[in-house]
Amino acid sequence: MIKFNKRIKNIRKKINIEKEYDINEAIFLIKKTAKAKFIESIDVSINLGINTKKSDQNVRGSIILPKGTGRIIKIAVFTQGLNIELAKKAGADFIGTNDLAEKIKNNKIIVNSIIASPDVMHIVSKLGKILGPRGLMPNPKFGTVTDNIQKAIKNAKSGQIYYKNDKNGIIHTIIGKSNFLNNDLKLNLECLILEIKKNKPTNIKGLYIKKITISTTMGVGIKININSLNI
Fold first, then answer.
1. Which numeric CATH code is attached to 75-158?
2. Residues of the chain with CATH 3.30.190.20
3. Is the confidence at residue 17, as pLDDT, over 90?
4. Which residue ranges does the chain devote to CATH 3.40.50.790?
5. From start to end of 131-182, where are the E strands?
């Protein structure tokens, strides 16, 4: 039997973990029970009706959340030449090539996003074993391998998130912070779901979005009634 600490027990008294809540009620409860000593993230888990063993059924993509993520984004940019000055003006926190790679290898910097111009990807690719597991490897599909460095940095600073399903067919990502307005959290979630629906694999049969659950960093999951969303 799983043992819960006092804080989790108190939260579970206020939330029926088996019930599917209207989105507005769910957000109200999730914020009410966010009692950590820091501003907690609001995360979402989306269970998809996909077969992850089939490569053409895996779902991945990116979206700029309309109300942002509430995170302070630290960006590292691998580039050279004229792009260096453009990256500085756009607000990149770290810029370089081999020197930047060494800092990442030695854990001397912490970043949330990595962007690279195509001409230096031979340097970045050597960091695959480090960046891959962290979800930080630049990818042209996400716009993080690009010649338009300024646009990529702007997107990252504006609240762009990347999502992909895990081996169980579940997408886990952030939709904001516990100090966001209720309607802003709802809007971010709805825009994310709509984007995932756009990326529905063509060969999926049956129910695509099976379950949506939101939770805080230190809280418990609340199931959402999908019909209460404007999607």
1. 3.40.50.790
2. 16-69+161-228
3. no
4. 75-158
5. 160-164, 170-177
Would you place residue 1 in the very low, low, confident or very high pLDDT band (cuts 50, 70, 90)? Answer: very low
What is the third-level CATH fold of 16-69+161-228? Ribulose 1,5 Bisphosphate Carboxylase/Oxygenase (3.30.190)
Q: What is the pLDDT, as a whole number, of residue 10? A: 62
DSSP E strands in the chain: the ranges are: 20-21, 41-48, 60-64, 75-78, 94-96, 113-116, 160-164, 170-177, 209-216, 222-224
Is the model more confident about 3 or about 22?
22
- Give strand pairing partners of 171: 46, 165
Q: What are the tokens at 202?
A: 């063509």
What mean pLDDT do residues 179-197 have? 96
pLDDT of residue 13: 60
Could you tell me the two tokens for 142?
A: 């996400």
Work out whether strand 94-96 and strand 75-78 pair parallel, antiparallel, or are unpaired.
parallel
Q: What is the mean pLDDT of residues 35-58?
A: 92
* Amino acid code (one letter) for 62: S
- The letter for the amino acid at 94 is F
Predicted TM-score (pTM) of this structure = 0.81
Whether residue 29 is predicted with pLDDT greater than 80 in this model: the reply is yes
Tokens 């960046």 — which residue? Answer: 131
- Written as six digits, the tokens of 81 are 């030449």
Q: Please give the DSSP secondary-structure letter assigned to residue 109.
A: -
